[in-house]
Design a protein that fits this description.
Layout: H1 2-18, E1 23-35, E2 38-48, E3 55-66, E4 69-82, E5 87-97, H2 101-111, E6 113-126, E7 130-143, H3 147-153
Length: 156
Amino acid sequence: MASLVDKAKNFVAEKVANMKKPEATVTDVDLKDVGRDGITYSAKISVDNPYSTAIPICQISYTLKSAGSVIVSGTMADPGSLTGNETTLLDVPLKVPHSVLVSLVRDIGRDWDIDYELELGLTIDLPLVGDFTIPLSTKRRDQAPYPLRLLEKGIK
């Protein structure tokens, strides 16, 4: 009897391991807003849902680093759900306070560009599997923004 249970466990584990899972990519990270309390970046995430039903997103955790230092980290709780058999575009706002911008200024001063790494964890609730986290990471190098670009966004 024990071998039958073990065979059933192995069969289910193999099926779960081989089932399709949603796939995600970071499509863009851009300056969204400049305000009195900080700068807001916007990370766009594209998620493909292979299932015919919607899948709830539990949370999105994020860490933004520049020059090896953590600039901002946090969690976006309950950002909605993934539409069935479609690609869902998620917008994750990253609010960077002015007090932390000193490390960005140091990075810009070295080579006139901003080197950053964004790490994201998209946690979804898959049927039969439970909570499943899709790890995402992107490294980019952007030109330092011209003062006109900052003024163009408007200080609020």
